[in-house]
Amino acid sequence: MSSDFESYEQDFAVLTAEITGRIGKVPKLVGDEKKQMVANVEKQLEEARELLEQMELEVREIPPQSRGMYSSRMRSYKQEMGKLEADFKRSRIAYSDEVRNELLGDDGNSSENQRAHLLDNTERLERSSRRLEAGYQIAVETEQIGQEMLENLSHDREKIQRARERVSLTISN
């Protein structure tokens, strides 16, 4: 059992070393290379999380008297994983800032580009608001029609019940 844990430990150590190296490369890359590197790091982080889960399962199967040492190692691995995720997040924030600057223009400070983007976004918001309002009106109308139908059905039910009562009264007479 502990041999499985140690095997997972080795895999985790190799994987975290690769992740650390790749995270360090992300800010230095550009374009598609950077996108590919970010995708690879995300995939490797997911693999590392899965390895941690497997290691936790192995620790649960270890007898209680030996479990303490493995539990403390698991805590340190989880801390290391948290640090890797935080480093990757910082790396991605720098990456997203660069992407934002590319989308806004070369310098990111062009007031005309920003104004045009704001106007486009405002127009999209207004269109979306109008669509939402139209959808809300349709929902209200549908609710009113449904309510009228329920009232009509209620009246029809009362008529049918009165007719039944008359028929049963007629039959009894």
UniProtKB/TrEMBL annotation:
<keyword id="KW-1133">Transmembrane helix</keyword>
<comment type="subunit">
    <text>Interacts with distinct SNARE complexes that contain either STX5 or STX6. Interacts with NAPA and, to a lesser extent, with NAPG. Identified in a complex containing STX6, STX12, VAMP4 and VTI1A.</text>
</comment>
<keyword id="KW-0333">Golgi apparatus</keyword>
<dbReference type="GO" id="GO:0031201">
    <property type="term" value="C:SNARE complex"/>
</dbReference>
<dbReference type="GO" id="GO:0042147">
    <property type="term" value="P:retrograde transport, endosome to Golgi"/>
</dbReference>
<feature type="coiled-coil region">
    <location>
        <begin position="31"/>
        <end position="61"/>
    </location>
</feature>
<feature type="domain" description="Vesicle transport v-SNARE N-terminal">
    <location>
        <begin position="1"/>
        <end position="91"/>
    </location>
</feature>
<dbReference type="GO" id="GO:0005829">
    <property type="term" value="C:cytosol"/>
</dbReference>
<dbReference type="GO" id="GO:0048280">
    <property type="term" value="P:vesicle fusion with Golgi apparatus"/>
</dbReference>
<dbReference type="GO" id="GO:0000149">
    <property type="term" value="F:SNARE binding"/>
</dbReference>
<protein>
    <recommendedName>
        <fullName>Vesicle transport through interaction with t-SNAREs homolog 1A</fullName>
    </recommendedName>
</protein>
<dbReference type="GO" id="GO:0006886">
    <property type="term" value="P:intracellular protein transport"/>
</dbReference>
<dbReference type="InterPro" id="IPR007705">
    <property type="entry name" value="Vesicle_trsprt_v-SNARE_N"/>
</dbReference>
<dbReference type="InterPro" id="IPR038407">
    <property type="entry name" value="v-SNARE_N_sf"/>
</dbReference>
<dbReference type="GO" id="GO:0005789">
    <property type="term" value="C:endoplasmic reticulum membrane"/>
</dbReference>
<keyword id="KW-0175">Coiled coil</keyword>
<dbReference type="GO" id="GO:0031902">
    <property type="term" value="C:late endosome membrane"/>
</dbReference>
<dbReference type="InterPro" id="IPR010989">
    <property type="entry name" value="SNARE"/>
</dbReference>
<dbReference type="GO" id="GO:0006891">
    <property type="term" value="P:intra-Golgi vesicle-mediated transport"/>
</dbReference>
<dbReference type="GO" id="GO:0005484">
    <property type="term" value="F:SNAP receptor activity"/>
</dbReference>
<dbReference type="Pfam" id="PF05008">
    <property type="entry name" value="V-SNARE"/>
</dbReference>
<comment type="similarity">
    <text>Belongs to the VTI1 family.</text>
</comment>
<keyword id="KW-0653">Protein transport</keyword>
<dbReference type="GO" id="GO:0000139">
    <property type="term" value="C:Golgi membrane"/>
</dbReference>
<keyword id="KW-0472">Membrane</keyword>
<dbReference type="GO" id="GO:0012507">
    <property type="term" value="C:ER to Golgi transport vesicle membrane"/>
</dbReference>
<dbReference type="GO" id="GO:0006896">
    <property type="term" value="P:Golgi to vacuole transport"/>
</dbReference>
<keyword id="KW-0812">Transmembrane</keyword>
<keyword id="KW-0813">Transport</keyword>
<dbReference type="Pfam" id="PF12352">
    <property type="entry name" value="V-SNARE_C"/>
</dbReference>
<dbReference type="GO" id="GO:0016236">
    <property type="term" value="P:macroautophagy"/>
</dbReference>
